[in-house]
From TrEMBL, chain A:
Belongs to the leucine-binding protein family. It comes from Oceanomicrobium pacificus. One of its GO terms (biological process) is amino acid transport. Residues 23-329 form the Leucine-binding protein domain. This is ABC transporter substrate-binding protein.
From TrEMBL, chain B:
The keyword DNA damage does not apply. CDD domains: TM_PBP1_LivH_like. The chain crosses the membrane at residues 20-40, 52-72, 78-100, 112-133, 169-187, 216-237, 249-277, 313-332. GO terms for molecular function: L-isoleucine transmembrane transporter activity; L-leucine transmembrane transporter activity; L-phenylalanine transmembrane transporter activity; L-valine transmembrane transporter activity. This is Branched-chain amino acid ABC transporter permease. Pfam families: BPD_transp_2. Keywords: Amino-acid transport, Cell inner membrane, Cell membrane, Membrane, Transmembrane, Transmembrane helix, Transport. It comes from Oceanomicrobium pacificus. It comes from the Bacteria. InterPro entries: ABC_transp_permease, BCAA_transport_permease. GO terms for biological process: D-alanine transmembrane transport; L-alanine transport; L-isoleucine import across plasma membrane.
Length: 394, 337
């Protein structure tokens, strides 16, 4: 018995020593599952920020950050919850960068993150439903909600002078949430949605769907689907039957394969896709060159920013305590203060150490609004002469 | 007058032309199912995947042709590759007949055993097709895409509504028509066709009259495989080839065969068009159509759509259940299952 007690005491002592040296931050992403091709680069983005902080020597009086990876699987809520549980109870992380997909992110936040009072910053969960979860202020995201994109897309369409549109969306949480958000925003602007109908992905024939959509008598078809799935079939059938000539597309429809598959008939079609202009994104891509497979891949910037926010908030609070980090996230993310871009984390840490204020801008123009989520900047594009052309940023 | 023409063109574009093409594809598939049912006396669940296998062979040969520069001008190259696909489908059908069905035939197993065996064959074919060509979409159509383009039609006639007829839709209807004539001629006039009908009508009597059962079985598989490949290729040209959608086609094909009267070739054709048109007409929104026909300035409030397109597949189910309840023999008297 005595031996066991001694061993336990020794172990806890060792754990205590390790903690004083490095602050652990969890990275929970779907390293296996449907988005496993994206997550290594996202993790690389987050770990780059942590490395930058550790090497600066400014972080919490010379402390460092130690990343701990866990697998969210993207789709399996039970496995993701268990992995997050491990991070919080056994690895004792100060905060979590993640999770990635909306479903597992909700599960982790509700079951583990919020009850334990651990800050979670998701780089890629975009479901509008996440704005309304009971998060006690512990859930943030550097990715914008699809509700925001619905708003932006509605504005783009209205600005082009369309007052009556038909909407088709892919039949899942993403499509449904996006379509509802779009319809609400568009109707608030005075437009009318003649028909909003779901389509299933992976079907061979969409003529019945297109027939119903065209019968509503709208001038424009809004396609909120996937570029390699039903969305493509809908557009092709619409063009074949002459039902619609012009389309407005959501972010899932952005891809070069669309132009390859459809050709010149796509000219005049427009849409929105998340993206920011400016030096931040380019700078990060340069920094990630050689580390990530695709340095400007989807959500790598958001991942970097999420990890950076955690470190900066801890610095501002002067402690790696979980609640202390939570209280400072919005302060470092938003104005007022000195703007901090990617690669300038050392500068930000120094300002905070000296009691100054910063406005973290990062790779994606971070600005947290509402329930602690990115305002999001979107790129409005139009297809001209068989290529995507950027019109403006919104 | 122009309004009436507009209404007719609108309906043709979204209901009649797609319905005719889809109906012809279903009818060819249902003919294969019904023939096997009539002669071999079981419901062949592997028919959808036999279609996929034959189409896959056609696609592979088409790609070879395209790479060496053989083309058929305005019509798709796939039509040239069709005979090779049919041969491949016949080969695999006979292989499965010798290795699986023959065993049960000599044992005189009840039909339900055949049905379950065909489910096994279905999964094997399913796996073979995915293994060879992959589970994704394959594109193999070439040549001219349209007989009439919607925009050109509008310019030509001066009407508000356009009518588009795809080359694949035209080819589907013509090929299906020719194949059906050939099949009926074969069943009614040729010696083997008559033997098949006799065997289907009364097996013992046919055997007594000296009909060779092996020969009848052989010809049935050859015809069924040819029909499956033609139906599959036409469907793939018109829509797209993906192994999973062929597996899903099984339901409307069976519905067509049963609605028409299973075991009756004429019924299979009628059933194919009934299923196709009910799927399209029930889910079409008639708002625009009624605006053209109604009085000036009048518009219906809703979309005038009976069912949302989400329920497209349910339509075949409902028709199937109704037919089995009300008239189990189908439109043309087939065998009662």
């Amino acid at each position: 018995m005595k031996k066991v007690l001694m061993a336990t005491a020794a172990l806890s002592l060792m754990a205590g020593v390790a903690q004083a040296d490095a602050v652990k931050v969890g990275i929970i992403l779907g390293f296996t599952g449907p988005i496993e091709s994206l997550t290594p680069d996202m993790a690389a983005g987050a770990e780059l920020a942590m490395k930058e902080v550790s090497e600066s020597g400014m972080f919490l009086d010379g402390s460092t950050i130690e990343p701990v990876r866990a697998d969210s699987t993207c789709v399996d809520a039970a496995a993701a919850t268990a992995a997050a549980e491990r991070l919080i109870t056994s690895d004792n992380v100060a905060a979590i960068m993640g999770a990635d997909c909306s479903g597992v992110t909700t599960a982790i936040a509700n079951n583990v993150g919020v009850p334990n009072g651990v800050v979670m910053i998701s780089p890629s969960a975009t479901s509008p439903a996440l704005s309304d979860i009971e998060d006690n202020g512990f859930f943030f995201r550097t990715a914008p909600s699809d509700a925001r994109q619905g708003d932006v897309l509605a504005n783009v369409i209205k600005d082009k002078g369309y007052d009556n549109v038909a909407v088709t969306y892919t039949n899942n949480d993403y499509g449904k949430g996006f379509a509802d958000a779009f319809q609400a925003a568009y109707e608030a602007l005075g437009g009318s949605v003649a028909i909003s109908a779901a389509h299933e992905d992976g079907k061979a024939d969409y003529s019945a769907e297109v027939g119903a959509l065209s019968a509503a008598g709208a001038d424009l078809l809004v396609v909120l689907g996937y570029v390699d799935q039903g969305g493509l079939g809908i557009i092709r059938t619409s063009l074949d039957t002459g039902a619609f000539d012009t389309f407005a597309l959501g972010d899932g429809m952005f891809g070069d394969s669309l132009i390859e598959n459809i050709g010149d008939d796509l000219n005049g079609t427009f849409g929105t896709v998340p993206g920011s202009e400016g030096e931040g994104a380019a700078k990060l891509a340069e920094m990630l060159d050689g580390i990530a497979d695709n340095a400007s891949g989807p959500y790598t910037g958001e991942s970097y920013d999420a990890a950076a926010l955690i470190a900066l908030a801890a610095q501002a609070a002067g402690s790696a305590d979980r609640a202390a980090i939570q209280s400072k996230i919005l302060d470092v993310a938003n104005a007022p203060g000195e703007p901090i871009g990617p690669g300038e984390l050392a500068k930000g840490l120094e300002i905070l150490k000296n009691g100054g204020e910063i406005d973290y801008v990062g790779a994606t123009n971070v600005e947290l609004i509402g329930a602690g989520e990115a305002a999001g900047s979107y790129r409005e594009y139009e297809v001209k002469d068989g290529a995507f052309e950027t019109v403006t940023f919104r | 007058m122009e309004d009436i023409l507009n209404a007719i063109v609108l309906l043709s574009n979204f209901v009649i032309v797609p319905g005719l093409a889809y109906g012809a594809q279903l009818a060819l598939g249902a003919l294969g199912v019904t023939l096997i049912y009539a002669v071999l006396r079981f419901s062949n669940f592997a028919h959808g995947d036999l279609m996929a296998f034959g189409t896959m062979a056609v696609i592979l040969v088409t790609w070879t042709f395209q790479s060496v520069g053989i083309s058929a001008g305005p019509v798709p190259t796939a039509l040239l590759a069709l005979p090779f696909g049919i041969l491949a489908a016949i080969g695999i059908s006979l292989l499965f007949d010798r290795s699986v069905y023959k065993f049960y035939r000599t044992k005189k197993s009840p039909p339900v055993v055949f049905v379950i065996a065909s489910v096994g064959v279905m999964f094997m074919l399913n796996g073979i097709v995915r293994f060879i060509i992959g589970p994704g979409d394959q594109n193999f159509s070439d040549g001219g895409r349209f007989l009439i383009k919607a925009r050109e039609f509008k310019e030509m006639t001066g009407l508000n509504e356009g009518l588009a007829i795809k080359t694949s839709q035209g080819i589907t209807i013509i090929v299906a028509f020719l194949v059906m004539i050939a099949l009926f001629w074969f069943l009614q006039k040729s010696r083997t066709g008559k033997a098949m009908r006799a065997y289907s009508d009364n097996e013992d009597l046919a055997l007594l009259s000296g009909i060779n059962p092996d020969r009848v079985v052989l010809y049935t598989w050859i015809i069924a495989a040819a029909l499956a490949t033609i139906a599959g290729t036409l469907y793939g040209l018109d829509k797209s080839f993906k192994p999973f959608t062929y597996f899903q086609l099984l339901l409307p094909i069976f519905a067509a065969a049963i609605v028409g009267g299973i075991g009756n070739p004429l019924g299979a054709i009628a059933g194919g068009f009934v299923i196709a048109f009910s799927e399209v007409t029930v889910t079409y929104a008639y708002k625009k159509f009624l605006i053209y026909l109604g009085p000036e300035g009048w518009a219906p409030d809703g979309l005038v759509q009976l069912l949302s397109t989400d329920y497209k597949f349910a339509v075949s189910f409902v028709i199937l259940v109704l037919v089995l309840l009300i008239r189990p023999t189908g439109i043309f008297k087939g065998k009662v299952i």
